[in-house]
Design goal:
- 16% of the residues lie in helices and 29% in strands.
- The C terminus is likely disordered.
């Protein structure tokens, strides 16, 4: 009988312990403030954070200018969309604030992306004379709702420009200027 109880307790301990993940296992930030990706405990808003009330295109269309990037708005379908320049957006998922939007994802860039509460985003634009993208980061705090709970827009925090923490991992230096010029024109 004691053996059965011991075995059951060992099994329960193994099942509970085997499923426990640390913050590092989840790719989140530990309490000491070091970065392991996007997410983790809430990080205070960084210096230079701007909070704007952005109305969607159905309710006045607020256009937000991001220094060194360009401008965007929220369209009639409640998506972030570029206003004139060719911008791309990418969601990093639910995070605990703008300070938790740190590392660029490897994919998922699109000209429009759904606006969602408590979600972080990156915005990028490739300058006309540049070889590398310029980035900004966004965070949607919450929707602006009407009295009948329809979405009028969102409260958005941003920092522009912003250099992602993992940018060195994504940059490819092409030392040969002639080859760089050809490859930047899309010739392969």
């Amino acid at each position: 009988m004691k053996t059965k109880i011991f075995m059951m307790m060992a099994l329960v301990t193994l099942l509970i312990g085997g499923n426990a993940c640390t913050e590092e296992d989840k790719g989140l930030t530990p309490g000491n403030g070091t970065s392991l990706g996007n997410g983790g405990e809430a990080v205070p808003d960084p210096e230079g954070t701007v909070l704007v009330s952005v109305r969607n295109a159905n309710n006045g269309k607020t256009v937000v200018y991001l220094p060194e990037i360009g401008d965007f708005y929220i369209d009639k379908g409640d998506n972030f969309a570029p206003n004139y320049l060719s911008l791309e957006f990418c969601s990093v998922g639910r995070v605990n604030g703008l300070g938790n939007v740190r590392e660029l994802p490897s994919g998922g860039w699109a000209p429009k992306v759904a606006v969602q509460e408590s979600t972080g985003y990156f915005v990028r634009r490739k300058p006309d004379n540049g070889y590398y993208y310029v980035y900004a980061r966004l965070y949607v705090e919450k929707y602006i709702l009407s009295t009948d709970n329809s979405v009028l827009g969102a409260y958005v925090k941003y920092q522009s420009p912003y250099e992602p923490e993992n940018i060195e991992d994504l940059l490819v230096d092409i030392p040969d200027a002639q080859f760089r010029d050809i490859s930047s024109c899309g010739i392969r």
